[in-house]
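Preliminary data (for renewal application), zinc ion complex.
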Amino acid sequence: MPKIPHCDRCLNNAHSNYLVCAMHPEGARGDSCPDFADDGQELWCPDGYKFVDDQLVKLPVRYETNHEPKLTRSQQLQIFMRHPVFTGLCPQYCYEYPSDRLNWNCPICGWEG
Ligand SMILES: [Zn+2]
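Predicted structure:
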């Protein structure tokens, strides 16, 4: 009987090409070994993966993000109430943007958005 996957993590592993271990020289019968003694070492796994119940599991991808708002709530509300992207009008109320506008700069007063 050959080695089973658990043999590589067993304290009884003989690390020999001719002998599996002293208790089961020819290997354990079946898919598991009654004398398995975990060596306590963590299995190597690639970045972004983790062993869960002897199964290699891909961890969700996480990105470093900074969601701290740069503006206060009232500044955000001010933009929301006056920016032409929401109103369609220049904040100085001197120009109504066409629907095919290319940017939010006002051609009349020079406001830049
Ligand atoms: Zn304007």
